[in-house]
Specification:
By secondary structure, the chain is mainly β. The strands form 2 sheets. It has a two-stranded antiparallel sheet with strand order 1-2. A two-stranded antiparallel sheet has the order 3-4.
Length: 100
């Protein structure tokens, strides 16, 4: 019975597809992943926007290079390690991170 249940949630013969025919959309560094919806463009009927803010899903409690690590149990605002002009805030991670 367990095998049948697993089949039903992973294979869809009536739609001629299966789980491994589609890209893995978990994450956000190498594919749009989370940013498919968390892009500041998706809105509900009442105008509520799905935010692109990292802290909506993550609580960053420590970050930074060795010797200059920031820590806070209350959470930190994400700081990109190569921030120069803040352009990364307007882009999706996968725009630069290719996974290669």
């Amino acid at each position: 019975a367990h095998t049948i249940a697993m089949y039903k949630i992973n294979f869809f013969p009536e739609m001629k597809t299966r789980w491994d025919n589609r890209p893995d959309n978990i994450g956000h560094l190498w594919t749009p992943g989370c940013f498919r919806c968390h892009d500041d463009n998706h809105k509900s009927d009442d105008g509520k926007v799905i935010t692109k803010d990292c802290t909506s899903c993550h609580t960053i409690i420590e970050q930074g290079p060795a010797g200059a690590v920031q820590s806070s149990i209350k959470g930190l605002e994400f700081v990109h390690p190569f921030e120069d002009d803040g352009l990364w805030k307007e882009m999706d991670c996968a725009s630069c991170h290719s996974g290669n």
